[in-house]
Amino acid sequence: MHQFRSPCSRLLLLALLFSGALAASAVGQSAPESAARLDPQATTPDLPEAATVFPHPERSRFFAAGQANIIFQADPPFHSPYEGANSFINRGEYKTSLVGTLYLGMQLRRSPRTETDFILDFESAGGRGLSEALGIAGFTNLDVVRNPNLGSKPYLARVQLRQTIGLTNKMVKAERSVFTLATLDPERRIEIRAGKMGLPDTLDINTVGTDSHLQFMNWTVDNNGAWDYAADTRGYTYGIIGEYDDRAFTARYALALMPTIANGINLDWALRRASGQNVEVEIHKSLAGRLLDPERKGTVRFLGYSNHAHMGSYRDAINAYLDGTDAVPDITKHARFSAVKYGFGVNAEQELTSNISVFGRAGWNEGQHESFAYTEVDETFEVGGSYAGAAWSRPLDKVGVAFVTNAIKRDHQEYLKLGGHGFILGDGALSYGREDILEGYYNAHAWRGLFYAFDTQLIEHPGYNTVRGPVVVFSVRAHVDF
To answer: pLDDT tier at 464 (50, 70, 90 boundaries)?
Structure first.
């Protein structure tokens, strides 16, 4: 008999058992109680084939699912006249990462107007990234934990309550997912989420470029690189999100805990001195006007954030080095609780045909205070698109391509040039240039919830250094949804 020895293997076995058990127990369950009026024009996407190994009945009060994502990456040697402690290694490497997640949920209250969901997720992240996820601001694998010493022991990724407060009896269909269990939502409603979460679960979402398990893999393609969102080194935090939804727009506010140090695993629970505040407005409107079929969906999102934390200033670190106080520039020696880092972003997507969609992001932050929680990007701009494989009778296959260009501000540049280190970058010197990344993938559907992908990324000026690179990273991904 096969023994499940690793934490990831045990996690996936649990996912199989829970999914199978709940699929069986769902037989005969009654539909959610509702005297509400259903909008006859509301629709949810109908996939042409089953996209999970096991079915997930919509009538069950309980929900269980799992996923596993394995990414193998390799890069050949590239030009590099020097390297520092945080450089992307130039000799060529290959590394493998594995993430397994068990998603559990329960509808505590099933009335669509006042739905209450409880979400509980466990995760295991193993393996390592190329160069230990150092040396490239737009790193090549979003699954990599930025502190590999944490190991692959399973941990609690999410635990939260989601409360719906309906403001109308008019209902629209909703797609059940790992983050929301309702199949009907009030057209106008307030939603409140509280607990442990990843802010990108709700904010800065883009259906063309967000999912690193079925789409792009790069950090600054799947997320806005200039959004230094509140999170520990695994990408999670505790917080509360309030949301107002209407047919034409959605508005969100999120308050979350910041890490105690840059890229730290521990969170600061004193909101008076440290917090991450985020505001997003999402407008549901076609961006192409009369050029396209009016039924083609379009969305634009505007994001603003302000982080208060024990952060340092690049200028203070530079001055302390130049006047001889510090032997090398060290931003961690100049941290203050009064520090504020803020920024803005825009995120847009547009469906052109039933198979073609395009998207883009732009982001900016003030760049004077240290990159603290996500990556070392002060400005970013990206464009991309995807094409579904219906034309060659493979509707769940997808081809995608994206280009992103990242930048840092003058003080950040000078800090790295003088030999300073951030939590991602530090070649020991710097000949500055924008970090440009081109990524393309083909994601192939094999069977039910099993997918394979082939991905290539070209990184020009890794770590904003014009004398290093270019770097080419080749990736193979296996993904399964239970």
So the answer is: very high
